[in-house]
Design goal:
This is Glucose 1-dehydrogenase. By secondary structure, the chain is of the alpha/beta class. The protein contains ten helices and seven strands. It is about 45% helix and about 15% strand.
Length: about 260
Amino acid sequence: MNTKVALVMGGGAGTGRATALAFAREGAQVVVADISEDSARETAARIEQAGGEAVGVAADMSRAEDIQRVVTSCRTRFGGLHMVSNNAARAAPNKPLTELEEAEWDNCMGVTLRGVWLCLKYQLPLIEASGGGAVVNIASVSGIRGEAYQSAYAAAKGGVITLSKAAATEYARRGVRVNTVCPGGIDTEGMRFYLKSMPEMRERTLNAHAMGRLAQPEEIADAVIYLCSERASFITGHDLVVDGGILVRSNVIDA
């Protein structure tokens, strides 16, 4: 990935930060965007401390002008764009779908689905103009199987999967591959806070995975790096499930 430019939307923490660091280790120049400018700059600083090149910028994925500014930063700072991980998302409150407020639904959709569409809208032309590359949108197993009490999030992530397939079809002969990664539970600060606030859910959450554990952010980042690399040059429109066995959990016989 030397001489390539990578962009990570939502790169200020968790899986996004792990992905930005992974791109840098592979030799890419990295633009890190996050709703928290301090967090984005912290990720960029870590890359530079390790000898890489990076810039951190503030961006809200629900705002078209923010995404346009980030894409412009890729072009002006590093001369183009080749690889993207669209990682940011916003969940809705945990409640039955009939009890969701319209604003709660809209807030989730605004970042998690509309935000990915806006990213693709402004990223794809620059990737094509830069000679081609790859986009990986972070979806979720919730978007494949649905999720009780997270109907908005599941619907949004399902939309990300089909939106990505549409983009893959449109750009397949234009030099840009578009895929998704569908994680299960990830051991991030947000997940740890959630499990700490609801300790009764910890064992249930771990046990939902056939492997009995959560993913490390680096394990999801590895999947993103693979799909952006030349090793995945014939893969587009694909959903790579990285879930520790959530989708096959019903087949597991506990000892």
